[in-house]
Amino acid sequence: xxxxxxxxxxxxxxxxxxxxxxxxxxxxxxxxxxxxxxxxxxxxxxxxxxxxxxxxxxxxxxxxxxxxxxxxxxxxxxxxxxxxxxxxxxxxxxxxxxxxxxxxxxxxxxxx
Length: 112
Fold this sequence. Notes:
Blueprint lengths: L3 H20 L12 H11 L8 H15 L3 E5 L2 E5 L7 E9 L2 E9 L1
Antiparallel strand pairs: 1-2, 1-4, 3-4
Helix pairs in contact: 2-3
């Protein structure tokens, strides 16, 4: 016959184990909020290696990169809107510059 102390200990451990088993909620996704800006900036820098030949080419690739990485965005090339998918006022932005045929071109992407 077991002592009362061991019985209480076993019941307590069993209850704790069942509680942890039932309350466990695994995370199947990673929180990528901190990495979006880094991914976006590295993708924009990689455009330099594609040797864009004109502004239209640069607009297309910038919009494609923004749509692949961001949920809500606005892309401005030289201050004019190239593409967007939201009408909200977005405050965070990433700006980079390119030189195409000797002309500096700024690309600014506003993100949520």
